[in-house]
Amino acid sequence: MKHLLQALCILCVSGAGIPAMAWDGFDAATADLVEIIPDAIPKRGDTVEIHFYEGDRRMSCTVENIIRNSRTIEVMVRDPDNATRILVMEGR
Questions:
Q1: What whole-number distance in Å separates Cα of residue 74 and Cα of residue 86?
Q2: How confident is the model at residue 48 (pLDDT cuts 50, 70, 90)?
Q3: In which element (H, E) is residue 14 found?
Q4: What is the value of pTM for the model shown?
Q5: φ, ψ at 21 (rounded to 5°)
Q6: What are phi and psi of 79, to 5 degrees?
Q7: Res 19 pLDDT > 50
Q8: How far apart are CA 46 and CA 33, in angstroms?
Q9: Cβ-based neighbours of 86, under 8 Å, separated by 6 or more
């Protein structure tokens, strides 16, 4: 039992219990901090989950376009209300 508890603690501390990482950036229109889940550059037509730190809310959006710049990546998404948002994400 002692060894099982130690192994569980090591897994939790090492991050193995974290299912997904997030990709940080901001909404170009409002400057609200956001993160995209999963932590990968999406493709056009993919569905991503956007987490807005302001108000701690989440929404699923469809990727419309990706623009790569020298230091950032602009991800244009369409939200459930059919509005377009541009998310400026840290470069990869």
A1: 6
A2: very high
A3: helix 2-14
A4: 0.74
A5: -100, 165
A6: -85, 175
A7: no
A8: 21
A9: 27, 28, 29, 74, 75, 76, 77
Q: What separation in angstroms does the CA of 16 have from each of 12, 19, 21, 27, 33?
A: 6, 8, 11, 30, 26
Structure tokens, 62: 């469809």
Q: Which residues contact residue 38 at a Cβ distance below 8 angstroms, ignoring those fewer than 6 apart?
A: 20, 21, 22, 23, 48
- 72 in Cβ contact with 84 (< 8 Å): no
Instruction: Give the integer Cα–Cα distance in Å for 74 and 41.
Output: 10
Query: Residue 70 corresponds to which tokens in the numbers above?
Result: 């020298």
